[in-house]
Amino acid sequence: DTAVSQTPKYLVTQMGNDKSIKCEQNLGHDTMYWYKQDSKKFLKIMFSYNNKELIINETVPNRFSPKSPDKAHLNLHINSLELGDSAVYFCASRALGETQYFGPGTRLLVL
Amino acid sequence: GEDVEQSLFLSVREGDSSVINCTYTDSSSTYLYWYKQEPGAGLQLLTYIFSNMDMKQDQRLTVLLNKKDKHLSLRIADTQTGDSAIYFCAERTGAGSYQLTFGKGTKLSVIP
Quick one: pLDDT band at residue B96, thresholds 50, 70, 90? Predict the structure, then answer.
């Protein structure tokens, strides 16, 4: 069974569109995260979220917004996509005091 | 600020040992991690070490931590072609949410 899953695996879209990437974890973890990996493979935290607080990396444009319908899901919504948003987006989750487990990634290409 | 540095490339012959090095700056880091990313794949947690430890061994993997110098290394014994991947060092930072700050990754190429 997949612990942290993401959909879609690949996403190709036009500049200016709005898109969402979904993340689900079946581990019962308390905290979930979104990371962005750019073309040079550099990984940067975007958001961390539990049911008490949302922490946003100040470098993330406000076109990006996390949405959590329940504890097991943290979706990433992106408005007005730009070319520079092309990257691999990783979701991760963590139980209290434990390490983070990553999803397989969503490869986003903005044309 | 927080920064994690790694060399970008390492090439070794199959059967030799690989040593991937990492330096970090946040002296308050409590956990340090090694993740592996195979081509086109996600991040796989390989191992981690708590900051009060000097060494951790797990089968072919040995992690060494020099807290004084803020230096972390990952040694892979008897490196195989399947070990070819990008290896990320990460430190756990930030209270509460425990974010991970990653290095830029070391691409390990294993020559048959």
Answer: low
CB pair distance less than 8 Å for A102 and B43 = yes
Average pLDDT on B51-76 reads: 93
Neighbours of A111 (CB within 10 A): 10
Mean pLDDT by 10 residues, chain A (111 residues): 86 96 92 90 87 80 92 94 96 82 93 95
CB-CB under 8 Å, B102 with A48: no
* Rounded CA separation B69/B107 (Å): 23
Contact A42 B105 (CB under 8 A): yes
Q: How many Cα atoms within 13 Å fall on the side-chain side of residue A99?
A: 19
Predicted local distance difference test score (pLDDT) of residue B27: 73
Residues of B in contact with A100 (CB under 8 A): 45, 98, 100
Residue in B67, B39, B61 with CA at minimum distance from that of residue B48: B61
Q: What is the DSSP string of B15-66?
A: TS-EEEEEEE--TT--EEEEEEE-TT--EEEEEEEETT-SEEEETTEEEEEE
